[in-house]
From TrEMBL:
It comes from the Eukaryota. Residues 92-138 form the F-box domain. Coiled coil: none annotated. InterPro entries: F-box-like_dom_sf (IPR036047), F-box_dom (IPR001810). This is F-box domain-containing protein. It comes from Populus deltoides.
Amino acid sequence: MLLYFFITCFSFVLLLKPLPLKPLPPWTSEMRLLSFWFLKDLLLFSYLGSLRSTLLKVFHIDRIPLKMTIKNMSLSSSARAEKSSLDGEAGGMSVLDLPELALECILERLPPAGLCSMAGVCTSLRERCVSDHLWEKHMKQKWGRVIGPAAYREWQWHLASRKDLGSCKQGKPKGFTRLLSMFWPSSWSTPKADPINNSKQRSSLPVNSIMSWYLALETGKFWFPAQVFNRENGHVGFMLSCYDANLSYDPGTDTFQVRYPPHGRRAIATESGVPWERLRAPPFDTSPHDLHISDCLNDLRPGDHIEIQWRRNKEFPYGWWYGVVGHLESCDGNENYCRCHNSDTVVLEFHQYTPGSRWRSTAINRKEHREEGDEADGFYGGIRKLYNNEEISRWKRLWPTEVLE
């Protein structure tokens, strides 16, 4: 800058006082005028430049995002090609410029991984991507088959027992923060500098949102209650049964780890690699140690599919066992003459066992049924009638390859 100033001043003085030896050409008068205006503009530009620098230092104007200052300026085609469609420094069309309905339709069609990535772009998209209405569909599609009221209660207790879930202290991440870091974009778990206040802020996910619950299930760090068909890798003593257990998802194999509660004096049984086909949400929000109050006894007819509670003794929890309603011994099975549905006695049959087996059938009283049985044959509890063909088909798909004794 000083060099340009010196050259201009020297040429101006030279033209202002020409040597008397030779007359100057006529264009020198025009050059004097141009040099004068150039010097004036140069001095004004230098003054404004120093003034701008002072203002930037005082008011931190240089920390305002560049998008705020050149939003309406046109860019070259190469600059537009390099600009990101979402968080570019210069002006142009971005996702946030779309109509609200169009943007909402795009977010509704994103998979969970896409929503997580989009949520790490900016604050505006983050607020949209963590909305419960976007994650309700994903939760129902993937976890609706195995999640019930008991699992939701367990999640609420998990949140209540960890009051520091949303806080982040120095050192290693703790609690839910570490859990989310396995699935969450790194930009969400690191401090971000505020460009205006020159301070660091931390983005956090609402822990009580459906999104946080989905990610807790997806990472496998949250154990939840559900029910497992044919427990303990199809142990012969549990064929065509369904028992309560605690489950943890393994995202690497798309299967589950299972912990069965202790039965009597037995230790906790475990099982790994359990597929989705062997899992379901509990049909009732009751403890496996409580008797289910049957409300279908008056509707039971021969051929109906049922599930009935059964346990070995009073110390064991109930499991649900598949069976069908049979005919009384006095009935020949002819539909035109069958009156079994008018009798107080209901015969329940378990066709997975051979005829003559003590587990083949049992009888209950339609009007006074509670828990029936003894220590030798176990105790039969509440009954639920299966109306859904999908439930019946699931039991049939689990049918043992050989008839049990």
